[in-house]
Design goal:
196 residues; mainly beta; 5-stranded antiparallel beta sheet
Length: 196
């Protein structure tokens, strides 16, 4: 198969892809909000490694967002107009983390490691991961988690999660909580409800 821009099918981080020029797909909205997804007909396959990188570091208040510098998120599901769940291609350079350690009340999450050796951090401690390994986090269990890259090479993984409304997120190590409202927007007050 020959893609329109002359790129042949290729093996990208262990996943067979069929590449079309990324310019064939509209860019995500300025703040990547669910309500701002571009209208589109059913798009064809893309090369995930060439999808646009989200320019905003994090949804967190700046006091916490600054701690997430370095990681790279490519919101793949948004390119296809998916609304029930999100899919992101993530890259964690050395010493970066995926998120603050957190647990969702209503949204399931799943990760699959493509490259590198990130470390999964949960209540039970740290677990080294390798390509081909995966982990899932069922909503409502209170099992807080995050990934950290202690290795010298980048870690690349796919993260997926549903977008259930009325989701509440706890951050056991921080004075913060998160609420996913009916409009598909996140709010991040302190644990006592005070705004940041």
């Amino acid at each position: 198969f020959q893609a329109e821009d002359g790129i042949r099918d290729k093996l990208v981080t262990g996943v067979q892809t069929c590449a079309l020029p990324i310019s064939a797909y509209p860019a995500p909205g300025p703040q990547d909000a669910i309500a701002r997804r571009p209208p589109m007909s059913q798009p064809g396959p893309i090369d995930a490694a060439r999808a646009h990188v989200r320019t905003r570091r994090s949804n967190y208040p700046e006091i916490f967002a600054a701690r997430l510098s370095g990681h790279e998120k490519r919101p793949l599901g948004d390119l296809f107009g998916l609304t029930n769940f999100g899919v992101n291609l993530m890259r964690l350079p050395r010493s970066s983390m995926s998120a603050l350690r957190h647990a969702h009340s209503r949204q399931d999450e799943f990760i699959y490691v493509l490259e590198g050796t990130p470390t999964l951090v949960t209540h039970g401690g740290e677990t080294p991961l390798a390509p081909g390994m995966c982990a899932g986090f069922r909503a409502g269990t209170g099992e807080a988690h995050r990934l950290i890259n202690h290795a010298t090479t980048d870690a690349v993984y796919i993260e997926m999660g549903d977008r259930s409304n009325s989701n509440h997120v706890v951050y056991p190590d921080e004075d913060m909580q998160a609420v996913f409202n009916e409009n598909g927007q996140w709010r991040f007050p302190q644990k006592d409800g005070s705004p940041y």
